Structure formats: C-alpha cells, structure tokens
Amino acid sequence: MEKLEIDGASIALDDEGYLEDLSQWQPAVAEHLAAQEGIELTDAHWEILYLLRDFYSRFEHSPAMRPLVKAVKLELGEDKGKSIYLMKLFPGSPAKLGALLAGLPKPDNCL
Amino acid sequence: MIFSLVVQASPVQSQGAETALRFARALLASGHSIHRVFFYRDGIHNGTALASPPQDEANIPAQWQALAKEHQLDLVVCIAAAVRRGVMNEHEAKRYAKDNANLAPEFELSGLGQLVEACLVSDRVITFGGRS
Amino acid sequence: MSETSILILMRSAPYGSSAARDALDAALTCSVFEAPVTLLFMDDAVYQLLKNQSPAGIGQKNLNAIQQSLPLYDIDRLCVDQSALSHRGLSEEQLSLPVESVDAAAIARLMAEHTHVMSF
Amino acid sequence: MILHTLNQAPSNKACLESCLEAMAPEDSLLLIEDGVYWLQPPFRDLLPAEGKLFALTPDIQARGLEIALEQQVDDAGFVELSVSHDKVVSWF
C-alpha cells in the first residue's frame, strides 16, 4: 500500500490513490497527490476542490459527474458549470480525480 | 421478449432466489431471452462459490452457476453490495488485501449502472425480493 | 414509449434495514444514466422523509443529507402516498423535502406511466 | 395493465393493502410464495375477483393448501402472465 510522507505524517492511500483515513486530508496532501498526476493546483482547481468538500459535508457522499456539474453551475456560474471546463482542470474523470484530490471517498455512482 | 431479473433475496433465508431461478428456467424454456440477472442487497449471496448445503438439499448458488453455463447468462453481482458483505473476486480481494476470493466464476462484479442499463434494454424487469 | 422511465417503489422505514439506502443508491444511478426516475414512498417509507434525523449514534449515514442532493441529480419528483402519511399522523410539513401527495388512483397512474417499477 | 406479484403471508396485511391500493381495475394479482396463504377462506374476500387473481401452483402444493382457484399457474404460466401484462410490480 502506498504512503505519502507530509510534514512527518504518514498518510496511507488505497490502491487507487484515495486516502485510507479521510481525516488526514489537508491542502498539502492535495498538492502532493496533484503533483503525482502531473497537475499544478491553481485557484481554479482549489475552488472546485473546496466545492467538492462542501458537497460531501452537506450530502455525505462524493458526487457523480452530473450532480458535480450542476453544483458547480449553481455555485460558480454557467461558464464553469460545464463538463468541458472540469475536464480541463481534472483530466479523465473530474468526479473521480476531484474526489481523490479533495480527500473524499471514490464516488459510488460512476459509470 | 427480453427480460432482466433483479434478485434481492438471499439464497437460503428466503424463497425468493429459488422462485427467480425457476422463473429464469421457465423463461428460457419458452424461448424468451434473459439480458441479465442483477443481484442486489442480500441477493449478492447467490454469487458465493462456497455455499455447501447438505447433499440432499438444494444448492441455489450452484444452480445459478449451472444455468449460467448452459445458457451463457450474464449474472451480475452489485459490487458495492458484495464487497460490503465480503463477497469478492480475485481482483477485489487483492484491492482490499484479503487472503481469499469467494465469488463463483460464473458471476461478474459490477456497478448499479448495470441494473439501470438492464432497465433501458429490457421489455420486462422483474424483482424477486425477500423481506427487508 | 420513446424514453425508458423508472419508478422506484419504497415501502421500508430508514435505518432498521438497508432498504432506504439501497433504493436511493439505485435512484442516483438512474440519474447518472439520464433515465428519468420518480420516487414513490408508501407504507413505512414515508418515515424516510422525516426531518431532523441524526443517525450518528447508530453508526449510519444521514439519509436526509443524501435526500437533499436529489435536486442536483435532477430527481425532482418525490411522490408520497397520502394515506400512508395520514395513517401515521404525519403531515407534509414534517418532511425534509417538498413532495407530491398521491392517492390510490394517482399511484396506479404512476405505475402505468413508467416503463419499469423497481421495488425495495 | 400490470401484473402485481405478492409473496407475503396474511400477517403482513399492509403489504396486501398497499398492493390493492396501487392496483388499477384492469391489473392482475399473482400470489407467490407465502402470498398463497391469502387464498385461505378467512382472507379470500379481501382479494380481487377471479379473472384478476392468480396463484403459483408449486407454492400452493408445497404448503399443503386445498384451494379452489381456477387460475392456478405453473412457472410457465407465470412467464405467460408477465408477457401478457405490460410490466410486473413486486410486493414483498
């Protein structure tokens, strides 16, 4: 099992890269995980990551793509609430990669 | 006609799984096709390879396996429901660092999307339940 | 019928069994596949919608939280059996989300209108 | 036109009541598993009229019930009913 070492703390990841213990998340964890994916986190990334964490705290699950897009549209406006915008920030599967970087469980209802 | 069956009943504790099995046989005998049998909730226990009832009692999981072999049935076990209950194939056993896998090879682990897809392509979707 | 629609029929109270969670998970997945889905609450399932649930003490997730996300999944039609509510001395104001109250004839219509009915 | 199946014994009266509430006049009811006990005389009046009422023979025989119901069906009959109706709704 993979481990991240951040500020002396050892953070265990499951075999898909999600945190074993969600309470260990902090912004530095997201930066490390993003770097592994070849992503440098910008403000545009962070507002989505915090939106995801807010989604999780309100609804107790990680969103699939469709509700993620809708939540972004409601919170951040029409321009950002599009899958193409999220795909640019989090290539591949924004719902999965976003949840991973935001320190959330892997979304259940993905295709 | 294209049918899909949803089995929510566990193989021993309620009758529903056996009813579903008989219905599946009758469907095939009347020339209808079964797109998929989706096992959800405690129904996922039908997928175990380890069921070992006494030799003079019905082995429902083994009967699904035999029927699947004979008719190339698509038997899909809900992955989230199964992994929660400790039923998994080699791949998931490895992922969760378990020593053993116990899903019979005739069954496939997949997501609830397979249930919805079955609804989209089937003329009839019939649920076989046990209580709660 | 051109579009396949799904009616999810729920009859169980929350927490005492996994039925409510399992039904909701199926409903959310329908939305991911863009299949129109309607939820129908009968019998003890009307208790699923009561406000102020707080299941941390029994180690379960809060159903109200998942329910609040339903509009984001475009699941907007929550139908509640009027007689199930009144039998239990409940009113719509006690529920966590806006619902459509349905009588026997409307329930029969719902079942007829949807392509498939999935029971939990 | 819907085929409703019901597998609960008379102790679960709410299950039958909800099923009957949801049934349209043109719908049919198929009693399976423990649902066949509803055919016993004390409960019979609650059920839809013959013509709209079916029961699964293996379940009646298994339980040692003597029931006078014209429309008993075997598994193949269950299949035919599910084809002749537009959909199947399960009550359990």
Automatic annotation (TrEMBL), chain A:
GO terms for cellular component: cytoplasm. The keyword Transferase applies. One of its GO terms (biological process) is tRNA wobble position uridine thiolation. It comes from the Bacteria. Keywords: Cytoplasm, Transferase. Pfam families: DsrC. The active site is at 110 (cysteine persulfide intermediate). It is found in: Cytoplasm. One of its GO terms (molecular function) is transferase activity. Its EC number is 2.8.1.-. Part of a sulfur-relay system. Belongs to the dsrC/tusE family. This is Sulfurtransferase.
From TrEMBL, chain B:
InterPro entries: DsrEFH-like, Sulphur_relay_DsrE/F-like, Sulphur_relay_TusD/DsrE. It holds the Pfam family DsrE. Transmembrane segments: none annotated. The keyword Transferase applies. One of its GO terms (biological process) is tRNA wobble position uridine thiolation. It comes from the Bacteria. Its main location: cytoplasm. Keywords: Cytoplasm, Transferase. GO terms for molecular function: sulfur carrier activity; sulfurtransferase activity. It comes from Marinobacterium mangrovicola. This is tRNA 2-thiouridine synthesizing protein D. Belongs to the DsrE/TusD family. GO terms for cellular component: sulfurtransferase complex. It is found in: Cytoplasm. PANTHER family: PROTEIN YCHN, SULFURTRANSFERASE TUSD. SUPFAM superfamilies: DsrEFH-like. The keyword Transcription does not apply.
TrEMBL record, chain C:
Pfam families: DsrE. Transmembrane segments: none annotated. It comes from the Bacteria. SUPFAM superfamilies: DsrEFH-like. Belongs to the DsrF/TusC family. NCBIfam families: PRK00211.1, sulf_tusC_dsrF. This is tRNA 2-thiouridine synthesizing protein C. It comes from Marinobacterium mangrovicola.
From TrEMBL, chain D:
Pfam families: DsrH (PF04077). GO terms for biological process: tRNA wobble position uridine thiolation. Gene3D superfamilies: DsrEFH-like. It comes from the Bacteria. One of its GO terms (cellular component) is sulfurtransferase complex. This is tRNA 2-thiouridine synthesizing protein B. It comes from Marinobacterium mangrovicola.
